[in-house]
Task: structure prediction
Amino acid sequence: MVVVGGGNTGVQIAQELAATHRVALSTGSLGRALPLRLLGRDLFWWFERLGLARTGPDTRRGRAMRRREPIIGTDVRALLRRVRHLPRATGARPGEPLLADGTTERPAAVIWATGFRPSYPWLRVPVLGADAAIVHDQGRTAVPGLHVIGQPWQRNRGSALLGWVGEDAALLAGQIAATPVPVSP
Result:
């Protein structure tokens, strides 16, 4: 079995499957790993305590944080002792991923955990940028009445995390409630 993808989802799936299956993990490079608990506290407690969750996207620290998302809660070194590490997948043919070193694998199953890309083909209003993501200012789009919530880095690092998205929702709800509603004659 091959898991393609070296982010949180890919390494978590590989870790779970490695308990009962022979697994190979296809990645370019693995990001910095952070333990789920640090000095007896949950990592997200530290994010809150150090202000990392509220770091804005355009700050120096925010730009540095956006470059590479950490792998959270998986001991990557221990995982790599249990799975075979393959080069990054660069494509696929039926039933086999094509690897960056020119080799192929023909596993019984391939799990593609290659990340999230925005996809809004159903959105028929002019709010999409060149990267196909919704263009917004802290959740407000250029289309009156159209707002978004939970977008990565919408206001800060915590915007797409369950523990902090509520703050964005409350702020946006307050702004929506304060916006006068046009009345038709």
